[in-house]
Amino acid sequence: MNRKGKLSLLAMAMILITGCTYYETSPGVYATTPLSKFERSYAAAVGALEDQGVHITSENRSAGVVRGNRNEIDVSANLRTQADGSVRVAFNTSGATAKDPDLINRITQSYNRRMGR
């Protein structure tokens, strides 16, 4: 290979090397915006219903109400933010509750598990 070819090859290699840039994430802690207590409780309530096979039929996040059903049992979750900033969550069942009398307890357990209790 002649000198002109070697210089061309060297120039191409330099272009390729300088064209590669590696960006490393700077050290530190990166986190998303934490959920509010209400949002966390609401998500846990919806998840608890779904965990127990409840088909969600309606959700109204601003009113804090989730409704669904499972095996002819109507289920609702009602969430309210209290004056001290805590969130009160109440699960209710109605309808053919004799078909699955333990459903409300399993929903409550799923909710507590999702909340880390």
Describe this structure in words.
The structure is a single chain. By secondary structure, the chain is an alpha+beta fold. α2 packs across α3. The chain has a domain at 37-114: Kinase associated domain 1, KA1 (TATA-Binding Protein), CATH 3.30.310.80. The longest helix has 17 residues, at 3-19. It has three helices and four strands, in the order ααββββα. A four-stranded antiparallel β-sheet has the order 1-2-3-4, covered by helices on one side. Helices cover 38% and strands 26% of the residues.
Short description:
The chain is of the alpha+beta class. The chain contains 3 helices and 4 strands; from the N terminus they run H-H-E-E-E-E-H. It has a domain at 37-114: TATA-Binding Protein (2-Layer Sandwich).
Question: Which features would summarize this protein structure in a list?
Answer:
single chain; alpha+beta; TATA-Binding Protein; four-stranded antiparallel sheet; 3 helices; 4 strands; 38% helix
